[in-house]
């Protein structure tokens, strides 16, 4: 058995139950078990990442207990993960006890999966108001976790307020998760540090602590925390993925590639691993290898895959780097079917046309984008960046000079990063220094991502200007 960090699953009582179940399965002899015990075994398999055995156990449970809510709920949620809402509804309809909590939460989850948030919330509130007072705190945790699983952080936060003096670790865990995802990372870090102090072998708490550090852009602390989780459960690839992402953000691209490939070797069809490995390879200009992983990621995507437009954009840009104009435009056109800004799609197509030495077509695309967006700052900036990427420095400099000298620079401070980049290439070092100072103060992380190649890898952005001043004042060093 694998340790999970869960008190029940790691306890003697469940271990004895699980061993009895596995022995009966291996021997081929049927074993009578209570439906609640089978539900626990399904949850255990799911917790350790063995979805195949969880599914087999759910089907076996239904052979013994047709209409049992927990196995049907598991199969329904599996269908939702695959984007098959009809199958999920079919499983839900087979539940015998339509007054129970499993059915209630399953129906609510189907609503949330279809973005019927208000309908789901009213349905859950009606259920919450009808249950006994002593069950309400448990219900708050379950509803909060449901919303968090679907990224509906604001609703989860509202439900937290309905809890009555709950000091249990399950409530603290949910609160830490909500605070972290709501942008209050310091509060999330405080909560999960408290939880790992009292539960040092709980891998999920170490993971959540690492994630809070990661979202707070403290990538070294994220790596330190996730290594504890990896030590507890080295086979849990989710931890390896977070470490790879933190390495990538620190600019340790080759090390990140190693961890991304380790992740993909274990989970060869998992979207996030394929996508992130493709991005990592592209960062190293290994475009042909990167495309293989990105296109496989596209094949593995589903109706629930978030930000599919980002993948199509990356593929368009990668094919552009390889000067395969037709394929690049094909992926740019796919963006019209995604939730993607049309003006920015036109800028992307203009960028591809510039790379293909089609300046008239590019100019037409850029003009349409500017008109469509009503001269939105983000569109103007993207056009300037395209000009830079295509080596049209003089025009890029002129556009950015006008941009940075206007009031637009206050709402789009990242313009100073690109102006610094352009000035560096044009050897306008005095202007470079001026824009660098504003860039690292306004957007330090983005400055590191774009300008970091000019500086030592471990140098924090706040020290970039000092480093440049030292070079200027001591040119022989």
Could you describe the 3D structure shown?
- This protein has 477 residues and is mostly helical.
- It is 73% helix and 0% strand.
- It has helices at residues 12-27, 35-47, 51-64, 69-81, 85-93, 101-113, 117-130, 136-149, 153-160, 169-181, 185-198, 203-215, 219-232, 237-249, 253-266, 271-283, 287-300, 308-321, 325-334, 342-355, 359-372, 377-389, 393-404, 408-411, 415-425, 429-442, 444-451, 464-473.
Which helices and strands, and how do they pair?
Layout: H1 12-27, H2 35-47, H3 51-64, H4 69-81, H5 85-93, H6 101-113, H7 117-130, H8 136-149, H9 153-160, H10 169-181, H11 185-198, H12 203-215, H13 219-232, H14 237-249, H15 253-266, H16 271-283, H17 287-300, H18 308-321, H19 325-334, H20 342-355, H21 359-372, H22 377-389, H23 393-404, H24 408-411, H25 415-425, H26 429-442, H27 444-451, H28 464-473
What is the structure about, briefly put?
The chain is mainly alpha-helical. Helices cover 73% and strands 0% of the residues.
Radius of gyration (Å): 26 Å
List the secondary-structure elements in sequence, H or E: HHHHHHHHHHHHHHHHHHHHHHHHHHHH
Determine the oligomeric state from the structure.
single chain
Number of strands: 0
User: Uncertain runs with pLDDT below 50, 5 residues or more?
Assistant: none
Strand content: under 5%
First-last Cα distance: 59 Å
Q: What is the percent of helical residues? A: over 70%
For the sheet with most strands, the description reads: none
The mean pLDDT is: 92
Coarse morphology: elongated
Count, helices: 28
Structural class: mainly alpha
